């Protein structure tokens, strides 16, 4: 189950005897609290702090379904959630087909006010987040990743909108 909450929820999960394991994705300070509380109650614990969630697409995947799922996981909630899929590893046999379909589906995303019909991608929460997101695209280029889809181009000036960006040839030492 995915559970959202503050200290009372974390404490409840970590102290509940029926819960045998805890997996956490989020910030390092909160991850440290979860780890300490859960291990103190002899639970198995996995804490992905500051992590990037990975999606795997294997050669036997339904490519259209995988693209749809990645679009929702990567760009839903403007990508501003702990569970956002930030990294997609694709097996060689379907890489080109998956990449082509993912780039096209990303270009087709309707961006705007979320209360309007057919809008999928709304704004990030504030100007600072928009600047940081666009700076990450610049940083990815500077670190040597290949920019396949440039979300910096044609952003709406009115609001905190950022279009999808897709990199390839990303290595584990890159930001």
Topology diagram in text:
Layout: H1 7-15, E1 21-26, H2 28-40, E2 44-49, E3 53-57, H3 63-75, E4 85-90, H4 92-107, H5 127-142, E5 146-149, E6 166-168
Parallel strand pairs: 1-2, 3-4
Antiparallel strand pairs: 5-6
Helix pairs in contact: 1-2, 3-4
Q: Can you put this structure into words, describing what you see?
A:
The chain is of the alpha/beta class. It is 38% helix and 17% strand. It has helices at residues 7-15, 28-40, 63-75, 92-107, 127-142; strands spanning 21-26, 44-49, 53-57, 85-90, 146-149, 166-168. The strands form three sheets. Strands 1-2 form a two-stranded parallel sheet. A two-stranded parallel ribbon has the order 3-4. Strands 5-6 form a two-stranded antiparallel sheet. Helix 1 (7-15) packs parallel to helix 2 (28-40) and helix 3 packs across helix 4. The longest helix has 16 residues, at 92-107. It is globular, with a radius of gyration of 18 Å. It starts with 6 loop residues before the first helix and ends in a 7-residue tail after the last strand. The model has no long low-confidence stretch (mean pLDDT 90).
